[in-house]
């Protein structure tokens, strides 16, 4: 599965790291947050090395909806109730400033990424009270928001909170432009270079990479979606949530503006300029990574929704999926990793990491330079926050690991792998062991030990994306066991029959 963004961008390519390197800051991870952080640091005068395990902008950031907005579904009333007006306003100000900053960066660096300013709606077909309150609270916090009745956004809606002057763009082309700008500012980028450890020394950090070379720096920044390995135990205080996307051409012009439903099932839409005036992107089908047995049915539910909303038989030209992490208090974790002096992290963007990740980049740039940043305390990665919410999430995480390992056995398929048809995968018993098997389109069998190399949870087969997915903390692996997404850093053991 390839997203419409990665399929339609010519991303610059970079060599792998072959020898030890030294920089002021080493950024690990070349998605939206890593690239933006590296650019802001380089523009601030720091020497920067960025290492990326695979190719730039091909994981979650290359699989988004491409909305850069301070409108994060309905969040402001909730933020106000949980955190009070000062913190809610800080969040609003930081994210609205991030929208403008993305526009400014694109313009200053001449990035051709289909960027337009457009409204964003959170709407409901049933409930005008929640969206009314959301619009009122957002407006009271200084955001360009208002309540509208019967908005003409395509799907049926009785009311919406409308945020004006937001941004939609082509995220992969934007990030390709950010990478170019980073190298022009002196930054060095290495692709196909997986970091496997960060050691804090008395002076700075040493980052080990899978193939041997070490990067030494004053500071390390982990922007790997979730910090890898056991770093800061962020895996225990976040949950991984996956969504699916399709790009289709409607029989009529696509509605203007970006929209997301408040009602379930959540559907997030926006125009797809590459698909012409009728092109539409639809994202939805949220579920925890590795928790759904038939992921193909989720794509079908999106297709059915488009078909029934616009009354035709849609044939998506692209389909893709990705995941992101949520935290117990709605706020990302950004800043010094717990107990660390020189290692910074940015995670827990709750699927709003294009604006929140831009905020994160500014916070990390300022912390590295020893400057104040107005949002630093709000996003502080070391905060305890709501003790009860954190305790519940840690407990849920432990339960997921236990339940899933037990439930795993019930997913073992009967019959031998010889009966596995082309394109099918799943769990089998071979020689008394549980084995993960997949038969590729050429008929070749791929077999792995389906035990996650992070902390040992059982993996689930994802039939639509043909990946092995971990419900515990979101690692994903290819049919051959290569790591696609951390926190795991080691491949799965191959099974040799
Ligand atoms: C379906 C979907 C739609 C979304 N839509 C929106 C939207 O419209 N607007 C919005 O604001 N947000 C959206 N989000 C959220 C947003 O996409 C994410 O918050 C954001 O992309 C996260 O960026 P990142 O750089 O942390 O992660 P990534 O893009 O995943 O980047 C992390 C990078 O680190 C690399 N890496 C991992 N481990 C290592 C290692 N050990 N060594 C080196 N490199 C490593 C990975 O290969 C990857 O390239 C969406 C999320 C999803 C799932
Ligand atoms: S991601 Fe933690 S055990 Fe798999």
From TrEMBL:
Domain Rieske: 412-497
Name of protein: FAD-dependent oxidoreductase
Gene3D superfamilies: D-Amino Acid Oxidase, subunit A, domain 2, FAD/NAD(P)-binding domain, Rieske [2Fe-2S] iron-sulphur domain
Source superkingdom: Bacteria
SUPFAM superfamilies: FAD/NAD(P)-binding domain (SSF51905), ISP domain (SSF50022)
Annotated organism of origin: Kribbella sancticallisti
Origin organism lineage: Bacteria, Bacillati, Actinomycetota, Actinomycetes, Propionibacteriales
InterPro entries per the UniProt record, alphabetical: FAD-dep_OxRdtase, FAD/NAD-bd_sf, Rieske_2Fe-2S, Rieske_2Fe-2S_sf, Rieske_Fe-S_prot_C
Keywords: 2Fe-2S, Disulfide bond, Iron, Iron-sulfur, Metal-binding
Pfam families: DAO, Rieske
PANTHER family per record: RIESKE 2FE-2S IRON-SULFUR PROTEIN YHFW-RELATED, SARCOSINE DEHYDROGENASE-RELATED
Signal sequence region: none
